[in-house]
Structure formats: C-alpha cells, structure tokens
Amino acid sequence: MSLTDRQEDLLVAVALTEFSVHYENADPELAEQAWQLAANRLVEYDIGPAEAVDALEIGETGF
Q1: How many alpha carbons fall within 13 Å on the CB side of residue 1?
Q2: Which residues contact 41 (CB under 8 A, 6 or more apart)?
Q3: Taking 80 as the threshold, does the pLDDT of residue 6 lie above it?
Q4: How confident is the model at residue 48 (pLDDT cuts 50, 70, 90)?
Q5: Cα 36–25–40 angle (5° rounding)?
Q6: How crowded is the C-beta side of 24, counted as CA atoms within 13 Å?
Q7: Which of 7, 11, 17, 33 is an S-S bond match for 49, by CB 3.0 to 4.6 Å?
Q8: What is the DSSP code string of the chain?
Q9: Which key words tag this protein in UniProt (predicted)?
C-alpha cells in the first residue's frame, strides 16, 4: 500500500509527537523541537495530533 503525501505527513507528525512525549524528561529541549516539527506538519492540515491518528485510522479493526 502506497501512502499519500498527507498520510506520510500525518504519520511523521504522530511519530514526532510520540517522541516528544517519551523524551520530555530525558531531554526537554529535544522534545520541544520534536513537538514543534510535529506542529508544523499538522498546521497545514489544520488538525491536532489526536486527530491525525483518527485521520490515519490507526488501530481500526474494521469490525
């Protein structure tokens, strides 16, 4: 399955958000940079990180 540019941007934003959360205590400056990169990708689509997960249909089982 090939991802669209939008899906790729959203997937990267979700990964950067996760990274920022997990490294917030270890390296706050790096975590903030990751968060800013995620936000920059999401602003183009006018959605937040949780909405990006929904847009990617991550965890959908199809039941």
Answers
A1: 4
A2: 9, 10, 12, 13, 16
A3: yes
A4: confident
A5: 5
A6: 7
A7: 17
A8: -PPPHHHHHHHHHHHHHHHHHHTTTT-HHHHHHHHHHHHHHHHTTT--HHHHHHHHTTT----
A9: Plasmid
Give how far the C-alpha of residue 16 lies from the chain's centroid of Cα atoms, to the nearest Å.
5
pTM over cut 0.90: no
CA distance 33 to 10: 17
Place of tokens 């917030």: 24
Structure token pair of residue 7:
């899906």
Size of the chain, expressed as the number of residues it contains: 63
Write down the pLDDT at residue 33. Answer: 96
